[in-house]
Amino acid sequence: MDALEIARWQFGITTVYHFMMVPLTIGLGLVVAVIQTMWHRTGKVEYLRMTKFWGKLFLINFIMGVATGIVQEFQFGMAWSEYSRFVGDVFGAPLAMEALLAFFVESTFLGLWIFGWKQLKPAIHLACLWIAVIGSAISAYFIIVANSWMQHPVGVEMIDGRPVMTDAWAVFTNNTALVAVPHTLFGALAVAGGFLLGIAWYHLWRRRKDGIDTVGPDGSVIPGSAKIPGRDVTDHKVWIRSLRIGAVVAMISFAGTAVTGDLQGKLMFEQQPMKMAAAEAACHDGTGFSVLSIGNVGSKDCSDVVAVIELPGLLSFLAKGDFTTEIKGVNSLQQSYKETYGTQLPNDPKYGDRAGQEIQYVPVMEVTYWGFRMMIGFGGLAAFAAAVALWITRKGTVPQSRWLMRLAVLGIFAPFGANAAGWIFTEMGRQPFVVAPNPDMNGIDQVFMFTAAAVSPGVTAGELLTSLIVLTLVYALLMVVEVKLLRTYIRGGVASAMPELAHADEDGTGPTSGDKPGDGSNKSDDDVLAFAY
User: ∠137-142-145 over CA atoms, to 5°?
Assistant: First the structure.
């Protein structure tokens, strides 16, 4: 057993799991805030129902995100103490500010939103949600600032073998972060859009299946009502508007990720050329983009990689914006890296058994190559599905096809897959560095750290394997809890998030008729904790 590999697996599993919660929290929070704003401005009942239903799912996901995120802080000190010691002077500021936002601003104002439906004035109640949502976006900014410094270290100088921050402004305005932040936020909105679309499709399909909604001779929907709390004409408005909002958000966010992703890719060709060369399986210098390349799984070099389909000039366009500039391939870059950073790991005790071993500068090409394509492919698929959904639902409902419904629900996972693939590509493509060198500034080039030196020297492989197994089991249990909670409230529909619907008057008065928090008109007998429950 190798302590470094186990530590990497542990961090990878827990981080990817945690990041499943993050984009949904950020994206869905923003969508819920917009929907509540629409309710506040129009007083329409469907927007109130949408706010409470999607808000309930947002809260479940937020709680799980906080619980799984705490583990990341402990891992830095327990499994990666050498890394923490190396980056601590730089990471202290952004991570401290992130914690203040995540655990104070977000939590405080989200709590006020949860428990303030009747106690706060409508405008103040809405402002609480907006503050929490904006806080989560700023929180993401600080995390990305820290991660971007690992990708492209700036604003420091080496003192006694450690980088010490000398220019906080350079760290917080790192061009890598300034491009990564909007890319991540658009990715989060893509997740939220797919989430709304898939769930709303399911509920519209159920209404068709149960005979509540029918279609006229021209194919337009005829909404109906059932003698079940919440399944009335307004319920139809909730789902059709949710679906179409989700589809529009998904399409806009894909366009945003495409533009910011192009900018990010051009930066990476300058800052981490080996990562991008491996992502394109560009073994030799040239201009061609590989549509499909094949090679042996686990290959450590380019000797067996063959480009089956290649588009001349496209790689140059992606990297430099023209079709003629020759881009260095893996073979050329590997020689350059060896000349600059050495061919073997230093004979230093912090490298343990790996001291003196040959450095493998080429990342795992199967991961970088397919991770890059899965990121783009899943994102494009989600956007295409959103466009199709807008067309299919133009007359107000969805077909009765069970298979289309299942495809729509499965489509929820496409933007999740794009986000996960993108981050796995970003992090694994940086190897063998945990802090990648910055070749753009005088002297800063020597600020880097090999992953082999980052693991805690006093932690054994057995201890790491134990924590890996325990954390994986705990996270699996949390996954069961989250899926069960989400499934329960999704299947329950709006009524599951609004128990007061069961007490609404038959003539449409009561909490469903547009009562606003704090105005004293809500006649339901639910207590302040009903929404939190």
Answer: 125
d(CA 355, CA 515): 69
Is 83:32 a contact under the CB 8 Å cutoff?
Answer: no
In the 3-class helix/strand/coil scheme, how is 476-524 assigned residue by residue? HHHHHHHHHHHHHHHHHCHHHHCHHHHHCCCCCCCHHHCCCCCCCCCCC
CA–CA gap between residue 323 and residue 281 (Å, rounded): 18
Q: Tell me: the pLDDT tens digits for 130-159?
A: 999 999 999 999 999 999 999 999 988 888
Q: For the whole model, what pTM was predicted? A: 0.89
- Give me the sign of the Cα torsion angle 411, 416, 417, 422: positive
Beta strand residue intervals within 48-196, DSSP E = 156-159, 162-165
Which strand (E) or helix (H) includes residue 235? Answer: helix 233-271
Residue 213 · residue 236 · CB < 8 Å? yes
CA dist list (Å): 369 to 283, 291, 295: 12, 10, 11
Answer yes or no: is pLDDT of 521 > 50: no
DSSP 363: -
Closest CA to 301 of 275, 330, 280, 329: 330
Single-letter amino acid, residue 110: L
Spatial distance between the Cα atoms of 334 and 319, rounded to a whole number of angstroms: 19
Q: What angle do CA 309, 312, 313 make, to 5 degrees?
A: 140
**What phi, psi does 308 have (nearest 5°)?**
-85, -45
Using alpha carbons, select from 234, 179, 212, 189 the residue that is nearest to residue 53: 234
Q: Measure the CA–CA gap between 297 and 366, rounded to whole angstroms.
A: 7
Mean pLDDT for the chain? Answer: 86
Task: Supply the pLDDT for residue 301.
Answer: 67
Residue 326 DSSP label: P
Cβ proximity of 366 and 354 under 8 Å: no
